[in-house]
């Protein structure tokens, strides 16, 4: 097939070099659109789109829900964890999650901000769980879950604004869909260091979550404990919050985070 784009076909080495450059562009810009990436690479938009698509298929970049912009993906964190000088978040977090599930008796999840939602990457069922839904790899809404609200509370103002654009989907009668009310709740979560969800995503399900900090003080993960509302009651949630916060702080410390004195 002939190349009608006017651009010479890239060699394998050139394609790899361009892909790495895309990652460097996103690391520097935080996020960028296809046109911006193509301009920096000096290639046609179709070429940039193919490069970004290949990286997205491996989870190295992800597309934001709004305006088709891209940013670095979670797979880079896992690759970084292969470096012995850097702790692997999954290996670090899993035993802490197991202990937390034992302590609170409820299901524990570790979630990351990905693709406009909270993607669960670790799940440990509590000893009281009879039937546990598998949340691994599933994205849950930011505005209706404890993990999502925690991740939003520590996100930058632009990400918050995009996530709180109306209309926000209502999952239950308790789902908070008013952006202004949600902003107030996010401010409270940021101040107190944890957040709740009272049957906001699923009827009969309550949860509490806390932020996990990395060595550079960024909040990439949220640690949560969730359970049936008849057992993880509104009255019990504050006590569960203390345990979740303590576990989140332990994971943060293991990842190299040192809180300011």
Automatic annotation (TrEMBL):
GO terms for molecular function: DNA binding; DNA-binding transcription factor activity. Keywords: Activator, DNA-binding, Glycerol metabolism, Transcription, Transcription regulation. It comes from the Bacteria. It holds the Pfam family IclR_C. Residues 13-74 form the HTH iclR-type domain. SUPFAM superfamilies: GAF domain-like (SSF55781), Winged helix' DNA-binding domain (SSF46785). The keyword Transcription applies. May be an activator protein for the gylABX operon. This is Glycerol operon regulatory protein. It comes from Streptomyces oceani.
